[in-house]
Amino acid sequence: MQEKTLSSSQVNKYGFYLLTSSLAAMVQMTYLTIFMTDMIGIPAAIVATTLLIARFIDLIIGILCGGIIEKVHLPWGKYRSWLLLLRWVIVFSLVCSFFDTSAWPLAFRVGVSFIGYILLNACMSFTTNAYYALGPALAGANLNDRNRLSARGAQFMCVAMLITSAATIPLVTFLTPYTGPANAYLAVAVVFALPYILGCQMVSDLCRECDPSGKRGEQGAGVSTVTLKDMIQSVVQNKQLLILFLSYTIYYIGLYTISGLGTYYFTYIVGNYMNMSYSMTVTMITGFLSSLIMPKLGGKLGKKRSFVLALIIYAAAYACVYFIGGNWILFTLMGAIGGGAVYMFTGFGVNYFVDCGEYHLYKTGKDTRMIAIAMYSVPMKIGMMLGGAVATYGLAMIGYHAGITVTPEFQTDFMILLAVIPAVLVLIGALIMQFGYKITDEDAAMYAAENAKRAKGE
C-alpha cells in the first residue's frame, strides 16, 4: 500500500517547519535557566521550583492536547488552524521569557518568567502535535514517505541548532554593550522566533488539501467516535506505546539534565563562557553531518535496533565525560559522538508513535492515532521537567550560587550531575526498549496498509 510518493519539494517544505520551530524554541530551552539565575537574579532553588511547576502544568497540557485537537474542529482545518492561530502567541511568549525584570520585585520576576515558559511550551504542544498529525495525512500509508518527512525534519532541526549554537552567544556578547545583557538575550530570542511565522504558513499551505475536516470526504476519514475513555485506554492498554513512552522519557531525563547544566559547565568548570559557542557549533556541525549519514544506517538496522544502539553509545560517551573535568575539547568530542549516534533513530521521529497508533487501530478498530502522536512530545516534557529539576535542584544541593568559586569538591559533585547520572538513565532507557518493545518494521508496514484498506472500505 505504497501508492503515494511525495516530491522533494513537498518533503522540504514540510521539514522546514521544524527548522523555524527549533529556532524559536532553542534560546529558551538552552539559556532560560542561566538567564533567570544570573541575569535577573532569581536564586537557583526558586528557579528550580518555578520551572518544575511550569513544566508539570505543561506536561498536563501536553497529555490533553492530543484529545483536544482530535475533538475541536476550527475553521481553517483540523490541524492547520492551531499552527495559524498560535504562532503569534509563541512569538509573544519569548518576549515574556527574556524580558528584563531585574529591577522589579522577586515575585514579579518569577511570574513573568513563568508566564513566558508556559505560553511557549503549551502553544508548542498544540502546534507541534498538529504538525506531526499532518505528516501521515500528507504521506498516506506510504511508510517510505513518512520516514522521508521525519528524516528531513530531523536534518532541519539540526540546522536550526547549528545556527543557534554558533550565533546566540556571539550575538548576545555583541549586543550587550548597547542593550545590556538581559535585553541582548531578548533581542536574539525574538529575531530567532520571527521565521516561525513563515514556517507555520508554509506547512499550512502545503497541507491545505490533506488536512481532514472531521467530515467524511476525500480522505475517507469519518467523524471521530473516540471518547475520553478510549483516549485513556489507548495509552494504558497499548503496551507497546507504554514501553516506547517509558524508554523515551528516561532518555529525555538524562538529555535535559545535561542540557540544563551545559551553560554552568562552561561558565564555572571551564571558566570561559564563549567556549560554549565553539563547542556547540562543532557538535552541531558533526550532528548535521550525522543527520545525513546515520538515518541510512538506521534504515538498515531498523527502528528498534537503531534506538537501542544509539542510546548505548550516548550513555558510554557521557560516562567518559566524568573523567575529563574542565577539558572542554574532550567534552565536545564526547558530545559529538553521543549526539551523532542518536541520529540513527531520531530520523524516524514521530513514526515510532505512529506505528503504535497503527498497531492499536489494527487491534481494536479504534482510531486513536492522534493520541499516540500526541504522546511523542510528552516524554520530552517529562524529561524537561525532571531533568531540569535534577539539574537545578542538584546545583542547589551541591552549594551553587551565582559567582561561586569552584573547589575540587564542587567540581566532582558537578561532574556526577553532568555525566554519571545522565549516562545511567540513558542506559536504562536502552534496556527497557531492548527487552520490552516488540513491533517490527514489517509489522508496522502491515498495520498501516491494512488500516488504509479498512478506511477505504476494502
UniProtKB/TrEMBL annotation:
InterPro entries: MFS_2 (IPR039672), MFS_trans_sf (IPR036259). Coiled coil: none annotated. GO terms for molecular function: symporter activity. SUPFAM superfamilies: MFS general substrate transporter. GO terms for biological process: carbohydrate transport. The chain crosses the membrane at residues 14-34, 40-69, 81-108, 114-134, 154-176, 182-199, 241-266, 278-295, 307-325, 331-354, 375-402, 414-437. It comes from the Bacteria. Keywords: Membrane, Transmembrane, Transmembrane helix. One of its GO terms (cellular component) is plasma membrane. PANTHER family: MAJOR FACILITATOR SUPERFAMILY (MFS) PROFILE DOMAIN-CONTAINING PROTEIN (PTHR11328:SF24), MAJOR FACILITATOR SUPERFAMILY DOMAIN-CONTAINING PROTEIN (PTHR11328). This is MFS transporter. It comes from Candidatus Blautia pullistercoris.
